[in-house]
Amino acid sequence: MIDAAIGESIRRLGLHGQDGDCGLAAIEINERVLGGRGIYVAALSAPLLEEGRFVGHVAVYYRGLYWDAGGELSFGELLGYGGSYPALVQLSVGEVLAIHEQQWGA
């Protein structure tokens, strides 16, 4: 099955997708596994987003499924990273990199 192959390909990359590196992992997944065909999405804390802070998790949406460094994750799991009041947003690769740099001074 294609979805199982995607998950296995992601695991073989050995990505670290926690502690602020989820966006970088999403870029690697999209470019190296999905051929750039995925959409970057983030589940963020809506109250913190209103303050200009990006707290949550970035993943890739592809063919109706969400993917991160751990493989496939459900919509509910993704939203859970946004806390009690999550906001789901679509991002460009440039926005993913800008958020990472802003958070970690990279």
Counted beta strands:
5
Tell the overall outline.
globular
Run of helices and strands: HHEHEEEHEH
Uncertain stretches of 5 or more adjacent residues: none
Biggest sheet descriptor: 5 strands, antiparallel
> Averaging pLDDT over every residue, what do you get?
91
> Structurally, how many domains make up the residues?
1
Radius of gyration: 13 Å
Descriptive overview:
- There is one protein chain.
- The chain is of the alpha+beta class and 106 residues long.
- The chain has one domain.
- 44% of the residues lie in helices and 25% in strands.
- The protein contains 5 helices and 5 strands.
- The chain has a 5-stranded antiparallel beta sheet with strand order 4-3-2-1-5.
- The mean pLDDT is 91.
How is this fold's topology laid out?
Layout: H1 2-13, H2 22-33, E1 39-45, H3 46-50, E2 56-62, E3 65-68, E4 71-73, H4 75-80, E5 86-91, H5 93-104
Antiparallel strand pairs: 1-2, 1-5, 2-3, 3-4
Question: What descriptive keywords fit this protein?
Answer:
single chain, 106 residues, alpha+beta, 5 helices, 5 strands
Q: What's this, in brief?
A:
This protein is α+β, with helices and mostly antiparallel strands. Helices cover 44% and strands 25% of the residues. The protein is globular and about 40 Å long.
